[in-house]
Amino acid sequence: MIDRQTPEDSPRSRGIVWYPFDFSRGQIIAALPDDLESRVMPGGPVALAEEEAGVALLEGPVDESDAVLIDSLQRALVPVVLLVDAGTIAPIARGCVSLTLPVNPETLASVLRAACEQARVAREAQETTRQLEELNAIGVKLSGERDTKLLLDLILTKARTITRSDAASIYLVEAPGDGSRRLRFEMAQNESVPVEFNAVSLPLSPESLAGHVALSGEILHVADAYALPERCSYRFNSEVDALAGYRTKSMLVLPMKTPGGDIIGVLELINCKRESGRPFESTAAIEREALPFPAPFRNLAASLASQAAVALSNSNLFRELTRRQGRLEALVDVSQRVTRLWPPATVQKRIADLYQTLLQADAVALHLIDESRLVRAEVRGESLDPLLPAEQAVGEGPIGGVAASGDPRAIAEIAGYAPLSPAQREAAASGRLRAWLSVPVRAGDRIVGVLTALSGQAPAFSEDDVAVATTFAAQAGIALENSRLYAELERALEGVKKSQDQLVQVERLRALGEMAAGVAHDFNNLLAVVMLRTELLLARGQAPEVAESLTMIRQSAHDGAQTVRRIQEFTRTRSTRPFGRVDVQHVLQEVVELARPRWRDQAQSRGVTFDVGVEGGRVEGRPIPMVAGTVEELREAFLNLLNNALEAMPAGGRFAFQIASEGSRVAVRATDSGCGMSEETRRRVFEPFFTTKGAQGNGLGLAVVWGIVARHGGEIEVETTLGRGTTFVVSLPVPTVLPEDSDPGDASRLPDGTRVLLVEDNLEILRSLADLLRDSGCRVIEAPDGMAALSRIHSEHVDLVLTDLAMPGISGWEVAAACRERFPAAPIGLITGFGDQLDPERIERHGIRFVVAKPFTSGELLREIATAFRAGDRV
Predict the structure, then answer these.
(1) Which of 455, 554, 712, 743 lies in disulfide reach of 534, CB 3.0 to 4.6 Å?
(2) pLDDT, tens digit (0-9, with 9 covering 90-100), for 305-336
């Protein structure tokens, strides 16, 4: 009587889950259902083999010691389920079920129950092994193997061993999915001749020996394959012998039938020998020595074929279970990632990994559409370029066809697919790849890519595979679109952050500049008195010791003036100097030469070597375009960068100016191999008075660089890594129209008797300037303020007007306007303690010929006056 109990009515058998004493995931053990009893492993796999049947639950990733343990467990017929964290890249032990955490409790329980059932079957097989000795031992080994190729090889090896066969072959029955059945020549072994074997699919026909056995289920014993009875419907194909130089004589052909009666393959044993393991020396020896298979061997082989069928069936079922579990996890994983924001590279890698797991494929590739091309973003597998090229046109090949049509494409047999090139079919054959599946990846209504899977397993991809792959691809498309939006958002946020940082920097320096401008004005007035008075005293002749002291005073005042000038530099208050044409590459070469004594001569005297140079200079054969600016200022900026880099490389190193044209800008990268900066230093590097050099630095060098670059309409950024060097990137605009170069002319003495109106509210400067001009042959009309100046111009004629700018009451602007109206031809010059920060357009409107920034030397003032007179003569 047949028990027709349903699965729901059947009592669930108890399973044992063994785990090591140092298992760290106790919550998983605690959550196991009642029918799975958890126990700590005893002293080792050998001891475990004597306990009740169960499954071992271990943690990944697998290292060498774990691999040894797993191998021992499998030899003890204990199935192993391995828990691996998501994203772990490590080898997985062969024959294990690998579950990626987190895992669904029901899924885990289902896998453990199946593994426990497997363990029970194995123990029963072990008992049979003890009873039937060698045959049963072989059965245990077959039931413990889960890798199909290894399992088939084991079947052939053991079948030949127990039957003393010289050669053997295995055929598997497969269903391609179109309702037909085929016989696949899957594997062969031969002890006497080398076998160059390629798996091939054949029609399932009763005309061949293997086909007849697969269809009828009969066992065929053939004494001589070349002497079959005439009445037989099947025939032996002698072409195989001819190609191999072999002689097939006795044969034993057995169906591999499951307990349910399904024939899943055919085992073919060839040429029984008197002594196992000894090859035949020749075809004549085979003819002479090959024996028919005796009855005991037939029975053993029949039992082995049945065992092999069960093992193959279990392997297929187990692989299917793992595949379905992997599909579920992959679909859940990609669904979760749709709702997250990840970088595109991370999403692409994960999609390829999940797709491979989902379809249990041997190779996969993700191609993304870039205009009319498909570009391979990810690939899993080796030597796949002919089959899955890095780039191809949309519409070209199976992948391009899917991208063009939007329809999935499944190829059951790559070897017989005519549209593929011979090189592609050869690559598939060498990689033992049989089936192909490509599905479109969509983001909304757009096709954004193609997912492709290649497999060497039989049967080919089924309709269920296509449906699951299509569902996965739809989820993957959403994930890819989200990752693209995420990347755009990151770029936008980075741009906003950069703009905010630049705005904060500009505002901070602007505020400091406003404060520094007032301080600079007062200092400039004081230093102007000191410099003018010392120069007057020196010009009138002094005793040597007095002259030496005066020279020291003048130098100190000059140094103080330079400090004030640097403060004004970073505040962007120097705007009156006219811009000219600047060849940036030439400036860089000048900077390298100017600094040569420091980076070569002085460095070599200290035993230090620097490699300094200029790189780049032409783009597609064209020179770097010129920019508008002041040569002296840009030279000072780049010299500061070079000196700063040398100080960052106390033990020597390499520094390079790299110049390039980038659109409408000229970019200069100043790169050193020095100590780099911390993030805190990088953020503050352009702040005035911020220095990491202690008492040796004043913290104005890079602040001046920032001011010069900003004044030229450019930008400067810092790229640095602590301990790995720094790069300053200076970007200068290229104007559509370059300014004309100016000719400063030669200095000359003032005409004798020149009448100069001198307006200055600082009495010390007034008297000092008056003395200087009188010593130069001028007649000086002094005015201590603007009101006095206006009074004097109505009563006296003047040839030149020198006026301070910031004065109480009437300013220098108003004095200049009145003088221009009264004396249109007289040059007007401004003397100011604010530096040359004035608006050039305003200076031109008021007819100002020149501006002299305090403090100044007598030579500078006289040259400006002489130049103004010459310009007046030309007008």
Answers:
(1) 554
(2) 888 788 777 777 777 777 667 666 766 666 66
With pLDDT > 70 as the criterion, what percentage of the chain qualifies? Answer: 81
How high does pLDDT run on average in the chain?
81
What beta strand segments (E) does 694-808 contain? 715-720, 726-733, 755-759, 779-783, 800-804
* HEC-encoded secondary structure of 242-281: HHHCCCCCCEEEEEEECCCCCEEEEEEEEEECCCCCCCCC
- At 272, phi and psi to the nearest 5? -75, 140
Distances (CA, A) of 593 to 599, 632, 642, 743: 10, 15, 11, 25
Are 125 and 143 a contacting pair, CB within 8 Å? yes
Sequence-separated (6 or more) residues with CB below 8 Å from residue 667: 659, 660, 661, 729, 730, 731, 732
First CA to last CA distance, the chain: 128
Q: Contacts for 6-12 with beta carbons within 8 Å, 24 or more apart?
A: 12/113
CB 56, CB 73: distance < 8 Å = yes
pLDDT of residue 837: 60
Please, are residues 627 and 735 in contact by the beta-carbon 8 Å criterion? yes
Number of residues in the chain: 875
Tell me the H-state helices in 54-104.
64-75
637: number of Cβ within 10 Å: 29
For residue 250, name the pLDDT band (cuts at 50, 70, 90): very high
Please tell me the least confidently modeled range out of 90-99, 597-606, 855-864.
Answer: 90-99
DSSP string, 592-629: HHHTHIIIIIIHHHTT--EEEEEEE-EETTEEPPPEEE
Q: How far apart are CA 724 and CA 64, in angstroms?
A: 37
Q: At what angle do helices 105-132 and 134-144 cross, to 10 degrees?
A: 170
Q: For residue 151, give both structure tokens.
A: 């399992």
What tokens were used for 174?
Answer: 């497969």
pLDDT at residue 125, rounded to an integer: 63
CB 729 within 8 A of CB 709: no
Structure tokens of 687?
């702040």
**Contact between 701 and 685 (Cβ < 8 Å):** no
d(CA 633, CA 626): 15
pLDDT at residue 431, as a whole number: 82
Please give the pLDDT value at position 308. 79
DSSP 801: E
CA dist 14 to 52, 109, 113, 318, 571, Å?
11, 12, 9, 20, 83
pLDDT at 2 over 60: no
Q: What is the pLDDT of residue 239?
A: 87
Work out the number of other CB atoms within 10 angstroms of the CB of residue 651. 10
Strand partners, 165: 272
What pTM does this model have? 0.38
Cα three-residue angle 835-840-843, rounded to 5 degrees: 85
Q: Which residues contact 811 (CB under 8 A, 6 or more apart)?
A: 786, 805
Pairing of strands 15-19, 55-59: parallel
Rounded to 10 degrees, the C-alpha dihedral 537/540/545/550 comes to 20
Lowest mean pLDDT across 371-380, 516-525, 780-789: 516-525
User: In this model, does residue 479 exceed pLDDT 70?
Assistant: yes
Closest among 245, 239, 216, 213 to 226, alpha carbons compared = 239
